[in-house]
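Instructor's aside before we start: the two examples that follow are unrelated to each other. I chose them only because their records fit on one page, so don't look for a connection. First example below.
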Amino acid sequence: MSHEHRSLEALSKHGANASGWGLRYPGLVMGKGGKNEVKEFTGMWGLKPDADLVAFTDTLSRDVPVWGGPGKTFSEATTMLGLIRTARWFVARTQDFDGYTLFFISQFDGTLDKYFDDFVLNGKENLTKIWGQCVGCPSGPDATARDVVEYIARGQIKTLACYDVFPSLSLGQIYKAADWYEKTQRFQRAVAKGESKLEDAVNSFFGELAESYKQVPSGAMIDTEVARQWQYEDVAARVSK
């Protein structure tokens, strides 16, 4: 039996519908027995011959307020979700689609199903600005955000290995730890300088600890030179040297 046949047989036994979104795989799960687990998703979709990569990157730009309402850029809206740890898009030429292919990789807190449920909240307009550049993406007035997300889910490929530095800590826990560290540092410095009575400093410190932490702003790095710089064309020649 060939390796390919064994792989298809294993996929059949696993089930072609691993979740409510028709995912073939549940995704890798990273955790160390703590209160949190990190999931991942990797997918690929054929790009249209006239795909506009400049418009694509403009959609994800920090300077374009289109996600989540007025004044919300892609990175701001993603930060507010408090789930996505990293996400990246890149393009390569593959034989699978006989041309250029869009790849998307993401790691996040929570389940894979919940991740795709949240994708629907991005709205059809925002989703099609990215995946609408791909062949077969639902479009037209009758297409919905859910239709687009189902299309995205069908592009899933299996990740062989993945690494996360703090899989047992959720983003909320990381934010809280950073928040408490900064507040504790300010308290220590205030006490060392004798800026106020110790009792007042302690009361102020505990009052600050009781306040909710502020999310650390995340950032989206966009390659605005994508249409003019190389991406992968010379990689094969370089690695074969």
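Example two begins here.
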Amino acid sequence: MTTDDESAVNPPTPGVLRRTAEVSATMPVRASGPSGLSDYAVSPLGMSTATLLRDEVRVAFLGRTSTEDQQDPRQSLVRQLGNCKTPIPESWVIVSHFYDVESGRMELDQRGHGENYERFDIPIARDGGIADLLDEAQHPGRRFDVVICESISRVARRAFEGLSVERELEKADVPLFASNEPITLSGSRAQRVLQRRINQSIAEYEVINTLEQSWGGLCTHVREGWNIGKPPYGYKAKT
């Protein structure tokens, strides 16, 4: 045994430090019991896996595309659904489709109330929007066990709204997965949360950065002498 002073003078060798790190990093990941899940997954901090280990897991697709003048809603949603089908396990089946054509920066209570989706000729039967998804998630007879989206930016472009949706689903024991994130039931939930928060921050950064650059471009355009609005009364625009 050494004193604190001796430890400071003679610290452990680098090899000992590396070995300690390797053991602590690998030990909690071992399988624990017939489920084959890690110690992390079966801990009180892990997600609820009771319904996810069944022979068939019902999945709800959640999609969103920007306003129709920004992109083609039909092609975007078809692509999103295709990307969501690829990574899910074989026992998972998409049984319902919820999607909206609206800005991801809208307040959550204003989301999912659009109409006339027939005009977009989207070949995906629509069960409602995000508001309908959240309502059904609270119902004991809901048709789905989990929700999947192409990326977390499809849920919302602002982190607060994205976290609100995620929290509402979590309280109803409905996990939210994204096709561009690992879909795993085992392993550390902390690592999944870290990646999810990074992706939500990137989504909010991208939209704010785009808006700021667009505004800067408009300001420069006007300073160069161009008018992008209606001429004042009494003036005529010169092209």
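The beta strands are 57-65, 92-101, 146-149, 176-178.
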